[in-house]
Amino acid sequence: MGEPAEVVSVALERLTCGTCGISFAVPATWLAGRRSGEEEGGRFYCPNGHGRQFRETDVDRLKRQLKQAEAARDWHQRRAAERDRQLVAARGQMTKLKRRIQHGVCPECQRSFQNLRRHMATKHPQLTLPGA
Q1: For residues 18 and 52, is the Cβ–Cβ distance under 8 A?
Q2: Are residues 40 and 85 in the same domain?
Q3: Sequence-separated (6 or more) residues with CB below 8 Å from residue 110
Q4: Tell me: the pLDDT tens digits for 9-47?
Q5: Which domain holds residue 64?
Q6: I want to staple 19 with a disulfide (CB 3.0 to 4.6 A). Which of 50, 55, 71, 129 is the partner?
Q7: Quick check: 61 and 54 in contact, CB under 8 A?
C-alpha cells in the first residue's frame, strides 16, 4: 500500500444554489476571490451545473462611482489650474508686446522707430499701460 496522506485543514463556507437548492461548501479563500470579482468576474457553478455569480452590491457600486467622481473632479481641477497658468502667461506676453510697441519697437524686426513711439503717444494715449 501507499504512504499515508498528509492531513490538510481548509476552512469551508457553505453556499446554497438559488436555482436547485443544493447546499455545498467551498474553500473560504476561493469564495473571497469570487465575491470580490477578481476571479472570473465572480462567476462559478453549483455542483449541478447551474451558473451563479456574485453581483456588485449597492454599497460597492456607490463606492466605485464616488471614486470615479473624485478622480474626475481632481482631473478637472488640475486642468483648470493649468488653464489659469496659461492665461496668466499669455496676458504677460501681451503686456510685454504692447509695451514694446508703445516704446516704438517693431514686434517683428525688433527695430526702434521714433515716429512709431511718437504716433502711439499722440494718437493712442488710451493704450498707455501703467508703468510704461
Answers
A1: yes
A2: no
A3: none
A4: 889 999 999 899 999 999 998 888 888 777 777 788 899
A5: 58-127
A6: 50
A7: no
